[in-house]
Design goal:
242 residues; Alpha/beta knot; 10 strands; 2 domains; three-stranded mixed sheet; Trp Operon Repressor, Chain A
């Protein structure tokens, strides 16, 4: 996969792209990550890429020329998904990450200032994504979050190929609790079932804990989850206990 980012502050990506899973993914050849400064395509000696909004108002608006020129230059001959990081976009989910992980080319647009010229949104962009109902200074942090979520799903990136399958939201539920050594720490113990060696019982415990945690913390996820009769009975038991 090839992921390219257009940003006014490319240095923000240096640490994130050069460490942890994203660094390993590049070393393994699973992904190519590059960041381009939008100002390189400003078309003027002052590197200006914003201007005052028509009709007046506070703030500055990102001009269409630099963004169109930059995208056309880095995508020549290709038709990638072009993703605008924007608080008005669709809420980012694990399902969206899995969808984008199937693409070969992705371009992320990160803006600052008051917003984008609407022609960028209307004629250039294929997807608009928001990472939550809040406003950030720019799209860079959101793009980093989305890129990390996508890259870890690529084949060969994680140490164990199926390690992401049981992640929270990948199954539609929150993940079950995890424990490791020591079995007893300051009077706090690991559940006996996890040390029993009975894999069927362990799987049952993990499923119940996943349901319980989702019921307690994100009950909204259960509204669209295809519960089995056994799972429905367990949820009803939790409701009665509550």
């Amino acid at each position: 996969m090839n992921i390219q980012v257009l940003s006014l502050f490319p240095d923000m990506f240096t640490g994130v792209f050069g460490a942890s899973i994203l660094k390993k993914a590049q070393e393994k050849g699973a992904v190519q990550l590059s960041v381009t400064d939008i100002r390189e395509y400003s078309g003027n000696k002052h590197k200006q890429v914003d201007d005052y909004p028509y009709g007046g108002g506070a703030g500055m608006v990102l001009k269409p020329e630099p963004m169109f020129s930059a995208v056309e230059a880095i995508t020549a001959g290709k038709k990638p998904r072009i993703i605008l990081m924007c608080p008005q976009g669709e809420r980012f989910t694990q399902k969206k990450a899995e969808e984008l992980a199937k693409e070969e080319e992705l371009v992320f647009l990160c803006g600052h200032y008051e917003g984008y010229d609407e022609r960028i949104r209307e004629y250039l962009v294929t997807d608009e994504i928001s990472i939550g109902d809040f406003v950030l200074t720019g799209g860079e942090l959101g793009a980093m979050t989305v890129i990390d979520s996508i890259v870890r799903l690529l084949p060969g990136v994680l140490g164990q190929e199926d390690s992401h399958i049981q992640d929270s939201f990948s199954t539609g539920l929150l993940e079950h609790p995890h424990y490791t050594r020591p079995a007893e720490f300051r009077g706090m113990t690991v559940p006996d079932v996890l040390m029993s060696g009975n894999h069927a019982k362990i799987a049952e415990w993990r499923e119940e804990q996943s349901l319980k945690r989702t019921f307690e913390r994100r009950p909204d996820l259960l509204e669209h989850y295809p519960l089995t009769d056994k799972q429905k009975a367990y949820i009803e038991k939790l409701r009665n206990e509550q």
